[in-house]
């Protein structure tokens, strides 16, 4: 067994066959074990990077997207910093919460979002 005690960053790459059953459904048991291992690594102070095409395939199915389209969307994320993507997701979640609680109309929320991120 290799000694990883001096390693700061660990990259874990898995494919669709690792994350999903032959039917395309998510293999919860395998994913759970993988998350447990990554969590242990992170808690021991390691920087963990998770790389997978499997998440894209499962995510595409859940979102009702063709895997090719999901792949194209994923390619576009390369042009943004992680902080920018996180900020957009947080803003969209906040707007959704404001719409669902009646503090903002859905039309206005979309318009505010587009104005903020179209420049």
Task: Give a short summary of the structure.
This protein has 119 residues and is mainly alpha-helical. It is built from six helices and two strands, in the order βααβαααα. The N and C termini lie far apart (52 Å).
Can you describe what's shown?
This protein has 119 residues and is mainly alpha-helical. The protein is built from 6 helices and 2 strands. The protein has a two-stranded parallel ribbon with strand order 1-2. It is extended, with a radius of gyration of 18 Å. The protein starts with 8 loop residues before the first strand and ends with a helix. The model has no long low-confidence stretch (mean pLDDT 84).
Q: Roughly what fraction of the amino acids lie in strands?
A: 5-15%
Largest sheet: 2 strands, parallel
Calculate Rg over CA atoms.
18 Å
Shape: extended
Mean pLDDT: 84
Content-based structural category = mainly alpha
Number of helices: 6
Helix and strand layout, with pairings?
Elements: E1 9-14, H1 16-19, H2 28-43, E2 47-52, H3 54-63, H4 67-76, H5 82-100, H6 106-117
Parallel strand pairs: 1-2
Helix pairs in contact: 3-4, 5-6
């Amino acid at each position: 067994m290799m000694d990883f005690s001096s390693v700061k960053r660990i990259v874990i790459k898995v494919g669709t066959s690792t994350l999903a059953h032959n039917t395309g459904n998510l293999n919860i048991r395998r994913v759970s074990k993988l998350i447990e291992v990554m969590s242990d690594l992170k808690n021991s102070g390691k920087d963990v990077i998770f790389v997978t095409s499997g998440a894209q395939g499962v995510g595409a199915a859940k979102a009702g997207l063709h895997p090719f389209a999901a792949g194209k969307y994923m390619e576009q994320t390369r042009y943004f910093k992680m902080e920018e993507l996180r900020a957009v997701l947080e803003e969209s979640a906040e707007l959704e919460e404001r719409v669902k609680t009646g503090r903002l109309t859905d039309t206005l929320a979309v318009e505010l979002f587009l104005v903020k991120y179209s420049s």
